[in-house]
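Protein 1 of 2
SEQ + STRUCT:
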Amino acid sequence: MAVSDPREISVKSPKSSKNGYIRVLGIDPAAAGPTGYGVVESDGRKCRLVHYGALTIPEKRRKESAGAALLDVHALLAQLIEEFEPDALAVEAVFSALNVRTALRLAEVRGVVLLVAAQHDVEIFSYSPREVKASVAGYGHADKLQMQMMVRALLAMAETPEPTHAADALAVALCHLQVQQMNSKFGLPKIKNVSHSLRTLGRAAKTTSDSSRRHPTGAPCRAS
């Protein structure tokens, strides 16, 4: 079975008691490249990094069988859920602009993510790439470097998160924390797919402070 590439494993912070914190496992599924993952938790005022990294499936392993790579992704996610016990799992949605072949392969990986969440009775939420960028960077077309810099700032990281797939996974987790924080603030129900929710939250946020207006989706995480 494939394991995370040692060059891509980050330093893992000590496990917390989770008292007063909401812990989220973010996943950036990949059709061919590494599948990123990141665990972040928040007490509603600040976020802190727990763990992150990316799983690379060697080409030789991919050629063993049609489902070998999916099996490895399943094993990794099951291990992460069992070890870190997240309260929710957030995954990046399939990007509609992808070509059909890539979209289908990505959907297969995403299906594994949904399966693992169901097997471990963990709530799962889906966010589009544009929603994640708008939530974390304040701009729906932010590039990879901008996202890495924002994730680093929001989590007060000493180094820029690498690879970019891992940074994207952390961003998905941060997006979920921000959206659910605003849902709670305005008494809105939990949203499993937020293709329309950011507009609703944005309108609600206009009634809050100037700080909230600068970040329409809310921000339980602050840069140090």
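Protein 2 of 2
SEQ + STRUCT:
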Amino acid sequence: MKRAVLGLALTPLLALAGPIAAASDDVIWLRVEVRDQGGEHSKVKVNLPLSLVELVIDSVDKREFMANIESEHPSLDIPRLWREVRKMEGDDFVSVETDNERIRVWKDHDFFRVNVKEADYSEPNIEVKIPLEIMDYLFESKDKTFGFQEMVERVRGHLPLTLVQVRHENEHVRIWLEEE
């Protein structure tokens, strides 16, 4: 289940990764940190100025990208599903509780969020937080490309922003954006 949640989170994150740099003189960085105290590589850090990713993002055909997602779920109208989620007045729209974990999917005023909390943890050990404006752009825009500068403006006011954080036993992964 955790891999599925992380996979769902990465779809908009891949689109978001590039679109957040060049609107001002400040450099926006995509930062990834992985710590695994029991693993072969105990610490890995990736720091990319998003301007390096701009060329790749601007070359992605958004319609083809969405068609690939929709081909895996042909009966699901993703833009329509998102519009319905966006209109919902209540905050929580999915909550699953088992003996081993609790999963919560909700939106607040600014963000679409997913948390997974395993029974042994006091805090959620998987947290995903994506600005609603980015979700709107991804699922409702009919543009052929992602539009780097447009997405920059949609996320700039949320910086610094932790997009994904995963904690499990001795492992920790954090993906975030920040300006310097």
